[in-house]
Amino acid sequence: MPKVTPGPGPDPRPRRRVLGWGPARGGPGAPRALTPGPAMRRGRGGVGGRPPFVRAPAARLLEGEETEPWSLSNLFKVTKLIRGTGTESPALAEDAQPTESEKEIYNQVNVVLKDAEGILEDLQSYRGAGHEIREAIQHPADEKLQEKAWGAVVPLVGKLKKFYEFSQRLEAALRGLLGALTSTPYSPTQHLEREQALAKQFAEILHFTLRFDELKMTNPAIQNDFSYYRRTLSRMRINNVPAEGENEVNNELANRMSLFYAEATPMLKTLSDATTKFVSENKNLPIENTTDCLSTMASVCRVMLETPEYRSRFTNEETVSFCLRVMVGVIILYDHVHPVGAFAKTSKIDMKGCIKVLKDQPPNSVEGLLNALRYTTKHLNDETTSKQIKSMLQ
């Protein structure tokens, strides 16, 4: 295999076979060779006389281009954002600490994320007032049963209000992160490498969002309780009966909450709308700054999951779930923001590869994520979507 000298002097770093992703030039199974082009021979774009590929960003590897093994640190820098629990590797186990320039946004988002686990615990333990509601409906003249049902529903609606208000806080946090991770003059990949703490927070928001929606979709009690609350409140108003709990959730807030919970995936809808609004409000910012940030994150997750070398570093299955949720989350946001979406041939996201990664997991663990792609994306059913991709999601 030809070798490329990265600088005028000998390179002390160990040299091993380059990664051979894709068809080989020397026959089946042979690794790709690095052949220096004119730009590399002249050193254009390099630093200190080195050719450009020596400082290749993580995106070059994600797009399947060759790079030296020691340049995998570029990938590890970006993949800190998909670190779960455990000690996958020295680089991935490090907690991404905010730099001075990140601290303001980081601290604002951190306040929101600190409450995320509590929200999920409350949602997971949400049992609903189905029994009390059925009893009240079956015996409309029994005042005690009516009071019992109302007394059971009011505190539950207080929880639903807390979930809804958290979605508004999460939306504000996402918009702050988008502003930081897409600003000029840096490219999206440079942002993900420079602002690793913010990138990790972005991933944690998506992870929370998919977990919340998975729990909500499997809990019909939420909408049943809230529908009963609104019907009963309306009846009380007509009869001029004072309603405990009305001050907590007034009519205007109840309307907004009703729209929120009517969505199959309310948190994803909130974040999709927020991302779309962010792009439309920042017309001076190229849309590629946002879509490239999302597609790079999707590629990082896909590569980590489909490459045995990286997958073997995961010592905890929750890390796999984390990567899968983040990957699906950024695909959905990309599909809502990009003019032609994530499924078109021109998309920067390898949708076939991402769907294959999902289908390679145990079916019961990813059905919710596949449904999110089926039912919450915007462009899946467009004519530009290939029949193969549509059939993969059937």
TrEMBL record:
It is a lipid-anchor. Keywords: Lipoprotein, Membrane. The keyword Nucleotide-binding does not apply. The keyword RNA-binding does not apply. Residues 1-52 are annotated as: Disordered. Residues 94-390 form the CYRIA/CYRIB Rac1 binding domain. Residues 30-40 have a biased composition (Low complexity). Belongs to the CYRI family. This is CYFIP-related Rac1 interactor B isoform X1. It comes from Bos indicus (Zebu).
